[in-house]
Write a structure and sequence with these properties.
Largest sheet: none
Order of helices and strands: HHHH
Radius of gyration: 16 Å
Number of helices: 4
Number of strands: 0
Length: about 100
């Protein structure tokens, strides 16, 4: 029996590249960031709003903010995960105070 050949595994796109693509309006980059950081964002949102549906709404708002603020993103020692977490916390706090 012939061995099964598998294509080489692709490295994930670096976060910085995704943010640059996001800044250019590439929605596939937004989807990839949501897959990569959605669980973390949900945990942050839920810790503030303590309701599953509200947490989902907050996560959606946070990623919408990421789309709008991607052009201004600079790592400054923090990574994309920290940026997404900050956007999520801000969105959750605004949601809670509304």
């Amino acid at each position: 029996m012939a061995p099964t050949l598998h294509p080489p595994a692709q490295s994930p796109t670096p976060d910085g590249t995704l943010v640059k693509r996001l800044a250019a309006g590439d929605r596939s980059a937004l989807r990839e960031l949501r897959v990569r950081y959605g669980t973390t964002a949900y945990a942050v949102a839920y810790s503030v709003v303590v309701d599953p549906e509200d947490a989902e709404a907050v996560v959606s708002e946070a990623f919408a903010r990421a789309l709008g603020e991607a052009a201004d993103f600079t790592a400054n020692g923090d990574g994309v995960a920290a940026w997404i977490s900050r956007l999520t916390r801000e969105a959750a706090e605004q949601f809670r105070s509304a």
